[in-house]
């Protein structure tokens, strides 16, 4: 599942954070927590991808 993540996908981490993928990398994923904060997250801490609803 983490291999299929792309820019703009929304994910939930094992810690419960909801963030947006900025750039998938080999071992890490750069994610945006808010408009100003971008961090690297280890791929093993991705719990799930949030699927877009029909209204989005």
Q: Could you characterize what this model shows?
A:
0% of the residues lie in helices and 46% in strands. With 56 residues, it is an all-beta fold. The protein has a single domain (2-50), classed as SH3 type barrels (Roll). Strands 4-3-2-1-5 form a 5-stranded antiparallel beta sheet, with no helix packed on it. The mean pLDDT is 90.
- Biggest beta-sheet profile: 5 strands, antiparallel
- What order do the SSEs take from the amino end to the carboxyl end, as H and E? EEEEE
**On the 0-100 scale, what is the average pLDDT?**
90
Helix residue percentage: under 10%
Do you know the CATH topology? SH3 type barrels
Shape: globular
CATH class: Mainly Beta
Uncertain runs are none
Topology of this structure?
Blueprint: E1 10-13, E2 18-24, E3 28-32, E4 38-42, E5 46-50
Antiparallel strand pairs: 1-2, 1-5, 2-3, 3-4
What would you say about this model in short?
With 56 residues, the chain is mainly β. The chain has strands spanning 10-13, 18-24, 28-32, 38-42, 46-50.
Short descriptors:
single chain, 56 residues, mainly beta, 5 strands
């Amino acid at each position: 599942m983490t291999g299929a993540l792309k820019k703009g996908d929304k994910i939930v981490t094992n810690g419960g954070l909801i963030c947006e993928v900025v750039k998938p990398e080999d071992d890490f994923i750069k994610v945006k927590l808010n408009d100003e904060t971008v961090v690297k997250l280890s791929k093993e801490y991705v719990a799930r991808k949030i699927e877009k609803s029909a209204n989005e």
